[in-house]
Amino acid sequence: MGRIVTGLILAIAWLLLLLVGSYPMFCLVIAGGAGGCLYEFLRMSSPEVEQKHIPLVLILGIIPLFAASLWGSGVVTSSLFLALLILIIFTVVSYPSLDNGLLFAARNWFAISYIGFCAAHLILLRSYAQGNYWLLVLTAITVSSDTGAYYVGRSLGKTKLYPALSPGKTRAGAVGGIVGGMLGGLIAAALLFEGISLAMVALLGLALSAIGIIGDLIESLIKRVSGVKDSGQILPGHGGLLDRCDSLLLTAPVLYHVLYWGHAALLK
Questions:
Q1: Does residue 3 lie in a domain region?
Q2: Range of 254's domain?
Q3: With left for phi above 0 and alpha for psi between -120 and 50, is residue 157 left, alpha or beta?
Q4: Which of 35, 51, 149, 209 has the fewest CB atoms within 10 Å, i.e. the most exposed one?
Q5: CA separation for the pair 41, 33 (Å, rounded)
Q6: How far is CA 210 from CA 99, 238, 247, in A?
Q7: Residues 111, 57: contact at Cβ < 8 Å?
Q8: pTM assigned to the model
Q9: Cβ–Cβ contacts within 10 Å for residue 251, how many?
Q10: pLDDT one-digit tens code per residue, 158-191
């Protein structure tokens, strides 16, 4: 019951944020959520001796989000390089006190890129023309994919998809998730947009659903290497923020760049 209640609260809050929330409010919520995901990742993956450096990495990780909020896509790459430069300087200066300087830099650069940079694309999508509608389409794909994977996997799943990382996922569930994501995206796009190419939306739904599965698997890898079951306990019945956002971290950048480079192809 706790899982259902938490899910309903999250769904309602997300819909309200997209439909009636202001752009500054959206940016603040995404920056706060990304900061929470980043903290969970760093707490899981960093050795105890490096835990004291988490605040600095948190600041570096949200630089791309604030750049996207204030100046848009043109500054995000520059902000990411700034974060890298500061991380390199800090690693060189702090090298004597680190267990392994190279692993420290690599681990935290992955965190900044995977969470901070990728989450910034949610803000870039929101600032795009009809961006809130495209975020609703992305949400429909993600939710429908998760639902399809759960029910098809539970009913028909026998062969494991990737037991080394996620023993609970099955090949049948993956197919169900991809089909579900396609259908969810088609329904949402048909309701929200006029003159949209449903064939292209179906292909987009297929691609984003498949990439969402990769997002689930990379987070499973992070947790398995870190030796934890969930990234956190902030969401009753769901685990941590990173457990809920892992798919979006990869699908949001893909959707943004598809729209940026191929918006015309989505129109009839």
A1: no
A2: 129-268
A3: beta
A4: 51
A5: 12
A6: 37, 22, 10
A7: yes
A8: 0.94
A9: 26
A10: 899 998 888 889 999 999 999 999 999 999 999 9
